[in-house]
Amino acid sequence: MPYLVIEHLEEISNWVWLEYRHASEWWKNKLIFTNVLPEEREKLAKLGSVIGESVTRFPFDRSKIIVLDLQAEEELKPEDIDDDTIIVVGGILGDAVPRGRTKEFITSKMKGVKVRHIGKPQFSIDGASIVAKLIADGRRLEEIEYEENPTIKLDEFSEITLHYAVPKLDGKLLLTPGLIELQKRELGYTEADEEISDEELIEFFEGKRELA
Amino acid sequence: MPYLVIEHLEEISNWVWLEYRHASEWWKNKLIFTNVLPEEREKLAKLGSVIGESVTRFPFDRSKIIVLDLQAEEELKPEDIDDDTIIVVGGILGDAVPRGRTKEFITSKMKGVKVRHIGKPQFSIDGASIVAKLIADGRRLEEIEYEENPTIKLDEFSEITLHYAVPKLDGKLLLTPGLIELQKRELGYTEADEEISDEELIEFFEGKRELA
Question: Do A50 and B45 touch (CB under 8 A)?
Fold first, then answer.
């Protein structure tokens, strides 16, 4: 199984943490964080390997690196990926309007690596990690479903729209577990100490229930 | 500054922990542990980068790797080491009688890497890490002092002999901080909750005082 590198480029906010945790559920022990500050190492070590150096400077074998970049000309294919391939996802949230930041922070600094895209939509960090995993497992990009700007109903009066694409598997949105709960809390819908289980969230997304 | 990789091959006993901590004092953020189990990641992340994969399988750039191996033909020299060289120390304690375990566990599994020795004596993990750092900083092997099988007086009736070599700098033994305290505790000389400071230890080794 190949490696997934998340180049860590932001503070570990609650939102970032949930995305990283979701990526680790898919990549397990093959997840590596790069560009990690000493004081962040222990926290991120809960989820994967942690390397202080940036992926752009660390002495990886560059012939094994594939950087995912919206601006790449070729799409990522299963046959690009070997057992020790390193797939790099830029850890940048909130880039709903593509601004070429992966190219700015990563691709332009790494000679000799492959660059591939995973389609036109803008995915979150965990979304891109999941799409990469599905392709590493043998699926082709055109077989992978996703929903752009999904809208999540919170109650009969309100909804949240996520301004990026979320991958789907067997018709189900693979939304970041805990993210809607976090948003509800931040919007004042939920008390801070109310926990919503992943099961409840899945049923919520399937339209089977409303959240308390 | 180059990287030091410690291939983690033992449980994290108190002794191993003290050696790792000492190595991290010398290598700071350039220390990387490889072959780390998921449940050990957080603990070792206190001291450096942590990678789950073994150094023998991880996709490092092998042209940048130097494995320290007693059985190497060439000695490690400052001119071998670039800014992104990866120096690998096998994390094996207690090999007082050389048994070629570095070759068995590391060198034989890594094609395309450089192999170098740091002299005939058998160093501990931290000792080898320090010798490598001194050479990376420009010293030549023949300039580095060490003491083989140093004997440490505990009180007027007893002493501890360490069956390996300990490097010296400016005439001072660079002994693992806390190690004598640990040994005294295990031998029943010290209560578990008595702490001995590094300063006391240094003075002890300089013969200026006895430990309480």
Answer: yes
Q: Which of residues 54-73 of A touch B (CB under 8 A)?
A: 57, 59-62, 64
Tell me the chain A residues in contact with residue B20 when contact means C-beta distances shorter than 8 Å: none
CATH class of the region B3-143: alpha beta
For residue A163, the tally of other CB atoms under 10 A from its CB is 11
Rounded CA-CA distance B187/B145 in Å is 29
Q: Is A138 an interface residue toward B (CB < 8 Å)?
A: no
- ipTM score assigned to the predicted complex: 0.85
Q: Which residue has the tokens 């080898």?
A: B128
**CATH for the stretch A3-144:** 3.40.1280.30
- DSSP-derived secondary structure letter, A78: G
B54–chain A nearest CA distance, Å: 12
Query: Any idea what DSSP says for residue A176?
Result: -
Query: What whole-number distance in Å separates Cα of residue B187 and Cα of residue B113?
Result: 42
Q: Does B48 sit within 8 Å of A45, measured CB to CB?
A: no
* B102 phi/psi in degrees, rounded to 5: -65, -45
- How does residue B100 score in pLDDT terms, banded at 50, 70 and 90? confident
Give the model confidence (pLDDT) of A75-114 as tens digits. Answer: 999 999 999 999 999 866 555 555 677 778 888 888 899 9
How many angstroms separate the CA of residue B145 from the nearest CA in chain A?
A: 31
User: Dihedral of CA A129/A1/A75/A173: which sign?
Assistant: negative
pLDDT at B183 over 60: yes
Domain boundaries, chain B: 3-143, 147-205
